[in-house]
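Quick question, first post here. What does this chain look like in 3D?
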Amino acid sequence: MNKSTGQIMTEITIPTKDNKHFQAYVAMPEALPAPTIIVIQEIFGVNQEMRDKCDALAAQGYIAVCPDLFWRLEPGIQLTDKTEKEWQQAFDLFNRFDVDMGIEDLRATHHTFKGHAQSTGKVGCVGYCLGGKLAYLLAARGHVDASVGYYGVGLDELLGEAGDIDHPLMLHIAEEDKFTPKDAQEKIINGVKDFSNIAAYSYPNVDHAFARGQGEHYDEAAATLANQRTMDFLNNNLKMAEAA
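> Answer (accepted):
Ran it through. Tokens below.
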């Protein structure tokens, strides 16, 4: 329990289609029932940064759940971006990660919370880095009610799935992203511009992970703007849509 806000923070076990299970961090808001937001991890696992993001969303009136997507490789990963050793471990996990199985685990998370007793049934997602890529794919394959991707990697190679996205999607693109070159950014923006349910925003003079709190490339102005756009988008599509 977070005594200052009344939020409840815990873990939940999520079953999979292949009769296994994995853990997810959950932060519950004071007022229930509430919409759910799946927070999709970076390459560092369900670390303090991801838990903080869940807690912040719970404070805004959402059930926020961050599933452990590396559990099939090594459960319970909690890395930071502060040491070379942790970076090496994070990239090793990223390179071995099965994206399609990750989407299946996210779909299992979606299924669990769509029918959760304390949920309104509305489920969105917000992902960062690797999670930004997965948020895009979940929008295409999982039919969540609203999706947000921050500096998703490799989206230029996935534009063929844009036509399968049947709910609103918002993308945040860092113009100086060292993992997404300018030509790839242009391809992404041009590839989604004709879809009325997809909005892409570019942020000048910021690098990858500009919204990672305490991160090397954190940019307060860009993060504040992106986060406000995200909250307005989620509120419009998850809360106001439910009220309507």
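The chain has a mean pLDDT of 95.
Residues 189 and 200 are 6 Å apart (CA to CA).
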